[in-house]
Structure formats: structure tokens, C-alpha cells
């Protein structure tokens, strides 16, 4: 629901308690599933999924509490940064899985970038995007003039554009590896599920995160007076829903480690007990 501009020192509109509460509940359930699977499989490279889920929970819970605390700066900045930064953490785990998959398929020579550097380069870029967007979000949340608001929005926009560029580079590396492995199979595969199924999930998640980032780029690029920033429903349709789907898909990635198996195309999901027996 839209309210007059004088609703709050921070808010352009009055946020929906119902919408934020529903989002909080959904992300709480999804994050709990990730925590449970992480504790069972000890897939430590998936920790950023859990952290990102917690960011979403904190962000939307703070948003749900904001209508009755409209001028509470702490709540405003928690919801701003929590929702803004969570997808960067999701991306970090997506980056880390590709190097493990390349090793599990014995296809190190098919990678455009040396496997040891894939995680370092892309996760390092992710950390830079996190820092840039966090800085911009902090400036924007505390802005009291148009120039400071514009500065915060432009810094966030720069971080989002950089994140998209990094993600595109990552997808190029994944696609080249995919095409080369299909053309010249190594006879190896991860002992959890087919390598191609894992790659398809990786592509889907990458597209969803990129769609969300494009939405955010358009949102901040159009400026404070734009329709996207002055209405609430887009943040749920183009951010919350997409990130909930990402968390739902990625709960399948908790398999301890990607151990190679010869001629493995359709092997059931690994559990900690199965891993131990092997």
C-alpha cells in the first residue's frame, strides 16, 4: 500500500506487514532446511546459503516490524542491507560448486580458468560486490539530502553491475566446460547425481540471481522517483520470489563433497553415511 511521502523520514511508502511476514516465514523455513542439511552433510561450501538465508529472514522480519516503527533507523537499515546483500552470499556458494564439479569429472583441462583460481577469482569478486553494495546501502539508509541519496544509489548500482559482469564471466566458464565435456567425456562423474543435472541447476540458479540483479539495476538506475522504488510489489515479485526459488533449488546441493565415480550418470543423492561407506 502506498502512503504519502511524509509517512516516515526513511520510507517512501508504508510497507505491508502481511507481505513481509509471509516472506519472513518462507525464508525461515527454507533457511532451517539448509541448516539441517548442512549439519547432516557438513557441506561447508554451502555455508553462504545459510548466511544468505539468515540475511533474508532478518531483512523481511525488520520490514514487517517497520510499519509500527516507521522512524526506527536500525530496522530500516537492517531490512535494506539484509534483502540487498543476501543474493551475493547465494552467489558465493554457486561459484564454489563449479570448481568441485570440474575436479569430480576429471576435466580440469577443459576449464578456461585454472581450477584452483575459479573459486578465488569469483568469490573474491563477490566479496568486492558485497563491500560496494553494503557501503552504498549504508549511505542510502542514512541519507538526508538528495545528493547523498543519489550517491548511495549510484554506489549500489555500480556494485550490482559489477556483480552481473562477474556472473556472466562465471557462466561463460561453466558453459565452455560443459560443451567440452559433452564433446569429450572423461568417463568420470560426481558420485551424487549426473554432472549435467548439477550444471543445469547451476544455470537455473544463475539466471534467477541475474534476473534479480537486473531488476535491482533498473530500480536504482531509474532513481528515487521511479515506479519501482515507490511501489512495494516489485520487491516481492522480482526479488523475494526469485531468491526463495534459489534457496529451494540449492537445498539439493548438500552432498558432503563431490567425489568422482567412473561412468556415474544417475547415482542417488549422497548422504553422510554413504560417503563414509565409500
TrEMBL record:
* Spans through the membrane: 12-36, 43-61, 73-98, 118-143, 155-177, 198-215, 235-255
A Pfam family annotated for this UniProt entry: RTA1
Q: Which residues form the signal peptide?
A: none
Q: Does the keyword Transit peptide apply?
A: no
Q: Domain of life of the organism in this record?
A: Eukaryota
Report how it sits in the membrane: Multi-pass membrane protein
Q: Which UniProt keywords apply?
A: Membrane, Transmembrane, Transmembrane helix
Q: Where in the cell is it found?
A: Membrane
Does the record carry Transport as a key word?
A: no
A GO CC term assigned to this protein in UniProt: membrane
InterPro entries in UniProt: RTA1 (IPR007568)
Q: What is its main location?
A: membrane
Please give the name of this protein.
RTA1 like protein
**Origin organism lineage:** Eukaryota, Fungi, Dikarya, Ascomycota, Pezizomycotina
